[in-house]
């Protein structure tokens, strides 16, 4: 009985964390880059990016090249800053087609660091076969809907496990089908015409599947095997 509860909770947790998670894809690079516009100041920065079903989150943490002093990315550069700190900015792209463009312009007006703007700008492009924002938004929307559909099916499977175990097994297998379909949608539609790659001075920021993606994969496998065994 305890094993059944643990397995069911793991499947449910993988669904909810997949829907709400911000790490379906992630990328990170260490590079030398300008910190803000109209200045020659450069920083050694660690730029990170995490893409969820509804938004992209960009982080920046680094220090100056000359003074080896930390950068506080919440404001403009200050040579007196010595405390380690970072910047975290999330751009929503699933709410509406123009939402990320609006947030990107607002970030520019507020003086968000250039590396953050450089990454976010790639999701605002929509032309010349460069449509990462459109493909990620479409894939995220459909994957989100399909994954949410797995929730009531999972609940029905838990109810049936206390009534008719055979039908509960069938519903757990159906739950896994919805989870796998969401993964297929994300893995195919999101690429658009070409993979996302963001060049920096010391390398290229390539994305790879993150923890949220693999959690849904593992949850789907467990759900299918559990249903098949039942």
Automatic annotation (TrEMBL):
A single BP term in Gene Ontology: protein transport
UniProt topology in membrane: Multi-pass membrane protein
Entry keywords, A to Z: Glycoprotein, Membrane, Signal, Transmembrane, Transmembrane helix
Keyword rRNA processing: no
InterPro entries given in the database record: Dual_oxidase_maturation_fac
Transmembrane intervals: 139-157, 164-189, 209-229
This protein's record includes keyword Lyase: no
Signal peptide as annotated in the record: 1-21
Family to which the UniProt record says this protein belongs: Belongs to the DUOXA family.
This protein's name: Uncharacterized protein
Provenance organism: Ciona intestinalis
């Amino acid at each position: 009985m305890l094993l059944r509860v643990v397995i069911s909770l793991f499947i449910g947790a993988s669904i909810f964390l997949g829907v709400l998670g911000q790490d379906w894809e992630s990328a990170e690079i260490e590079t030398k880059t300008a910190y803000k516009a109209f200045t020659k100041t450069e920083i050694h920065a660690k730029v990170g990016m995490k893409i969820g079903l509804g938004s992209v989150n960009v982080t920046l943490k680094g220090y100056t090249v000359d003074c080896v002093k930390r950068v506080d990315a919440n404001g403009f550069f200050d040579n007196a800053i010595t405390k380690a700190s970072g910047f975290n900015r999330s751009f929503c792209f699933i709410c509406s087609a123009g939402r990320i463009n609006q947030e990107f312009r607002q970030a520019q007006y507020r003086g968000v660091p250039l590396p953050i703007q450089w990454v976010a700008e790639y999701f605002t492009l929509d032309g010349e076969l460069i449509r990462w924002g459109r493909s990620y938004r479409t894939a995220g929307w459909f994957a989100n809907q399909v994954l949410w559909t797995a929730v009531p099916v999972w609940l029905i499977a838990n109810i049936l496990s206390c009534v008719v175990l055979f039908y509960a097994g069938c519903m757990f297998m159906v739950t896994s089908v919805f989870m796998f379909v969401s993964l297929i949608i994300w893995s195919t539609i999101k690429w658009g015409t070409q993979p996302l790659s963001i060049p920096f001075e010391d390398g290229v920021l390539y994305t790879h599947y993150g923890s949220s993606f693999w959690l849904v994969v593992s949850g789907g496998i467990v759900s299918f095997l559990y249903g098949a065994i039942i």
